[in-house]
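As described in the Methods, two query proteins were run sequentially through the folding procedure within a single session, without resetting any intermediate state between them. The first query and its resulting structure tokens are shown here.
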Amino acid sequence: MEYVDRYDDGARRWVADAIRKVEADTNRSSDTHLHVFPLPTHWGVNLYLKDESVHPTGSLKHRLARSLFLYGLANGWIGPTTTIVEASSGSTAVSEAYFARLVGLPFIAVMPATTSPEKCHLIEFHGGKCHLVQDPGTIYDESRRLAAETGGHFMDQFTYAERATDWRGNNNIAESIYAQMALEPYPCPTWIVVGAGTGGTSSTIGRYIRYRRHDTRLAVVDPEGSAFYPSWVSGNAAQTAHGSRIEGIGRPRVEPSFQPGVIDRMIAVPDARSIAAMRWTREVTGRDVGGSTGTNIAAAVALIQEMRSAGKQGSVVTLICDGGDRYRHTYDNDEWLAAQGLDIGPHLDDLRAFMTG
């Protein structure tokens, strides 16, 4: 009888301790606030913002990074000497840098050269290194190359996002939303609105809605230049596009984690409207939000207008994905908008008029 034993007692102890540290972070910070957006009360339609910007790394991607680390540790892909490599437009890399430092591992973020300097600074603040590429389409191959070169692990959020999170519960974002809505006037949302980035959030929420047999419908928003919306409309999973200016959502290709079958409606939002909605949200709520949150809000406003036109009451829930402080040199900069040929004025006027309708 022959056998091969690969058990490494020291490595197993390290993994167990790393999982404990990541789970401790969950215990400290997994839930986030649900804010009421101040709509006129006589409308009978309520809008809620799930504030993911209050996570330790300031964005929705903190949940994803935590799940990806636990998935990699439990699968035996991450050990005590593993270099973590990720392809990211910024926020996921910030969060993964945080968790890499938490468990004592080096981290390299492969990102488009257009990534905001604020995000690069945050990655470096958490101990990571930024590896910028001129062509966003090369970030996957470059990430694999660096992982092979360093003997590391390519986290590959765009493949594993939809499978690393337990969509049935375990305090995921969907379970948290429904628990927080329990005492509201319309506890089962008519719509939940999220962006399409990796596809992980929409997959988790869409599956949870069906698993728990809720009547909620899931709307997924997509910015200009992204492949998700035209792919969903045409059914062509090979759809490609030039890429999005709204960081954190939109992709030049349809990512493996994107699960179109869980989505009830997709909404394409022009970039100028996303940025206008970002600024308008700050005007109305005092909350400083980022561009992808603006995309969410723009779609939520459209759905609320549709509900009011149909004489329906109910609730809509969407996400604050991250804070506006990450975009001072871009979406919050009028010179940048002019250079991009974006006129947000008409959209701001329209959104301001929405509240008086």
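Immediately afterward, the second query was submitted; its sequence and tokens are:
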Amino acid sequence: MLYKILPNLSNIQFNHFNSLKIRLTFGIALLSALGLGSVALWMNWKMENLLMTTHKQTVNYVANRFPHDVEIYSEMVSLEMGIQKTINNLSDHKNIYWFQDNNKKIIAKSLIFSPQLTTINNINSIPKVINIDNQYWIICGMPLNINNKLLGHLYIAQNISNEKVLFAHLINSLTIANIMAITIMIIAIVLYISYSLKPLEKICTVAENISADKLKEVSINFHNTPNEVKKLAESLEKMLIRLGESWENQQQLLSNVSHELRTPLTIVSGYLQSTLRRGDNLTSIQKEALSVAVSEADRTVQLLEDLLDLARADNGNIQMKMEIIIVNDLIREIIAIAEQYSGRKINLTEENCDIKIKVDQNRFKQICLNLIDNAIKYSSKDTEIDIKLKRNKSAIIEIIDRGIGIPLALQNKIFERFYRVDEARNRQTGGTGLGLAIVKTLVSTMDGKITLISQPEKGSIFTLTFPSI
């Protein structure tokens, strides 16, 4: 059977990872998140790289201009004054310069200068970002050569605090935008996948609700659906038609065989009983053999009757003569019949009012006698059987025994056809394994319900519930 597809977004449970919807949603959402996250990281790296490239361009500009300007000024003033004038011309509120000779002594510097900049170690031509008093700087250094003579090192510090703040705001905005985009994308993906899987949900609904007698009537038609889903629906429809034909043939065979065997077996049973009654000259062994043959023949006839009832129910041909009855009176009649053939005491507890239901009287007798017979067979002779009648919103009939009981693990199977809790004991009691299956079928046909409460070695309670009138 197709796996049940979750019907809507609110029902998604991510611990059920075998769901196709969740797998598709999780996979596509993960790929989308990785894609958008990769783009965000790439943009972050690209913007930082752009910032560093811009500073490198500034450094290259200064590196090319600074020696030339120093040479010009040094023709008019001393070399130190020339360096200072050049630094003053290039400096502004964002760019700070200072020059150290080969002895690490500061010869010239910008008017606006932070001494903390000189405490930084390992400054070279590769720009690096540092934080000083919540101010971000890009710092690098380069050797200064005049007339092919190394005079010292020129250091450049560029304040990028504003750019850093702007960059941080941009990254935050980009992160929020990515989260929102991923969220919207996931919701859109879930809705789209839910819409795309609706044909599979429909197929699942059809498969869950179809009954055996309507297999051939199923029609699964889809419009504007993918070819794969159409092919699946067509294959399922053809399979159901084949199953329907097989089911009909099986039921017809069962009905025909049961009907054809019942009559000769009834005749055989009659002849055996007649021979047994008139067999004064039979030995004890012969009489025992005939008794066993009569018992088995009667048991086989009962089995065929049960099979015929189930076949009629499956084909929808079971005859029901629905009428309003007073349950109290009919139960007393049923108890009298059961006490007569079993010799067991059956107690009746009822409310002081008439309880009316609409059922087939003969079928209702069959149900109750079957359950009482079941209670008698599986409880010891020194125990009593209790029947309770109650009326709430419905009519409730409880049949209670104090017998061997049924284990909890087996209670959901006892209404299956041919199922026996104890195979050996069923053989001794003459059970066919169809009694409770017939009871459930008849109860359901009359709009009733049957439930069971049982404990091993403490007994069982079968409860019949019918709409009260």
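The chain has three domains: 16-196, 227-315, 322-467. We note this only descriptively and draw no conclusion about the first query from it.
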